Amino acid sequence: MPESIVTILDVAIGGLLLGGIYALIAMGMSLQYGVARVLNFSHGEFIMLAAFSTFTLHTVVGINPLLCLVIIGPVIFLIGVLLHRTLFHELSVRAPNVDAYAASSILASFGLLFIIQNLALMGWGADYRAYSYLNFGVNIGGAVFSANKLVILGFSVAIGVGFYTFLARTRIGKGIRAAAQDPQTASLMGVNINRVLALCFGFGAAMAGLAGVLYSMRIPLNPSMGMQYTFIAVIVIVLGGLGSIPGSFIGGFILGIIGEIVSYFDPSLSLAAYYLIFMILLLVRPKGIFGK
Amino acid sequence: MDTARFTSKGFLIPGIIGLVILAGLATLPLYGSLYNVVLVTTILMYAILTVSWVMFSGSSGYLSLATATFFGIGIYISTLLLPNTGALLPLLVVVLIAGLGSSIIALGVGALTLRLRGIYFAVFTFGLVILVLELFNWWEHSVSHIRGRFVMLVDNDIIYFIMLGIFVATVLTYYFLQRSKFGLALRSIGENEEAAAHIGVNVTMVKVITFGISAFFMGAAGAIWATKLTYIDPYVAYSVNYSFLPVLMAIFGGMGQIYGPVIGAVIFAYLQEKFQTEFPYYYMLSFGIILIVAILYLPNGLVGLIQKIAQRLRKGGTGEEYADT
Asked: Do A118 and B284 touch (CB under 8 A)?
């Protein structure tokens, strides 16, 4: 094949591989914001926490990173549910109106960010950590990708589709969708709203956790890495339409591809490019591409 | 009548206390040690950031996280105009230019974004810090090829006096802004923006101008703060902590009174100077815990709490029913 086509394929597949993680992270944040109404700035810290836990479980205890998905996912889910039951529920009771709750929950999530990040710094230190897993090349149409990236994409898509099916088919999923549309009416119709909100916050945190477990296979870890992913998640959920789960899933892939294209020209500009897109989007179409 | 307001007891006592504190601060280099001068400079810097943050966000209800951007722009203007090879302009002129530079950028950003409501604005301003950080990183990395910059040395007492001057200007501006028609318009936006627009307030203009004024002090403080830093790169100048700390200080101190944010800034800046170098993780950890506790249990900050206690004592200890009035 000609060189340029290989390059385009390279960038496109690279974008999809990156996008899978972004989609997962953004879906989690979208659940927390779209349903539980918490714009969680500590979202990235759950990714970091899960990634470091995987690192320790794999390098010290010798557990397979993929097995960590079923260990760390539920633990972070429980942490998320507990956080909502205590902190965010308490804030929503105290807030006089929705706007006040939005502001106080953002600030509380900043508090969580500092708590989690500094606990991680105490536990793991400020150095970069990495481990190697499934780190061999796979040839796709002339371009070579490491196997772990493909595994990450596979799991991200499976988790995303699985969760979407859960929302669409199950009773709890229906409750969640009802709560997302109108919490008050939903609770009048017999949805246990506090439970649904806590569940959503837990699921959101768990997705960050799963993303962290997966992502730890391909990047070096550092306790201050979380903020960057929080930021990416915020961009994706605005891109996909605030509160829209499929929107954030697709938005993740779009941002991944954009990121790969920019990185192809100048890797140090990709975060800046994300922000520019985000800025233009907020000004031109704040409802997002898929927003109604 | 205006004269009645200025001679009333409510103005006189805080005014005298303020003047006594100011006199104490203005003469500090005469009797204080070098350590204390440097410590108070840091405290003043945070007090400037906190009061100027409250000036806009406290009244309008728009949560701005862009403080680090304006502060960092001030720092970078200093690196350009006051390099360690020799100052291009007098120090005070650079401080003014930094203030104006930040202000102009704030006016631009404000005009673009202050149409955005609530949460979008918070997200946007937070992203702005990262965008500017990344752009400067890229610029230093790919264009200028200068990694790390140095600013000329300035005498600690001079830094102190300029910081004190900016602090006094910030507090006075906040005070008179609050008492003016303009401040009233801003508060009416904070209470109910639609209603404010209906009674004829030009809401966008009021928000943008106040945002610009508050950024002036942030930029000016950054310019003089730069002379205290030994090494400057984008991560130092645009640290997101400069966005978060003023918010925490304001919430902890309480935004109902002008001295609330100042008290919050004094307490946290002091704790930071004491603990950050020795126990950085514990300091930032407790920072997070205090932020959450303050949001949950101190809705009106330390000052609000003290007022509540004072009110209860005045009512003879049975003031439970008055607690929230």
From this structure: yes
Instruction: State the best of B144, B295, B297 to mutate against chain A, taking most chain A CBs within 10 Å.
Output: B295
pLDDT digits (tens, 9 = 90+) for B50-104: 999 999 998 888 889 999 999 999 999 998 888 877 778 888 999 999 999 999 9
pTM of this prediction exceeds 0.90: no
Q: Is the CB of residue A98 less than 8 Å away from at least one CB of chain B?
A: no
This model of the complex carries an ipTM of 0.84
Q: Which residues contact B114 (CB under 8 A, 6 or more apart)?
A: B62, B121, B204, B207, B208, B211
CA distances from A41 to A87, A123, A166, A216, B244 (A): 14, 21, 26, 20, 12
Instruction: Answer whether B4 touches A (CB < 8 Å).
Output: no
Give strand pairing partners of B83.
Answer: B151
Distance CA B123, CA B157 (A): 39
**Residue A143 pairs with which residues in a beta bridge?**
A140
CB contact under 8 A, B134 and A272: yes
Residue of A99, A282, A283, A285 best to disrupt the B interface, most CBs of B under 10 A: A282
Domain boundaries, chain A: 3-284
Residue B7 confidence class, pLDDT cut points 50, 70, 90 = very low
- Measure B32 CA to nearest chain A CA, in Å: 34
Q: State which fold the A3-284 domain adopts.
A: ABC transporter involved in vitamin B12 uptake, BtuC (1.10.3470)
| A36 touches B: beta carbon within 8 Å | no
Domain assignments of chain B as residue spans, ordered by start: 40-276
pLDDT of residue A69 exceeding 80: yes
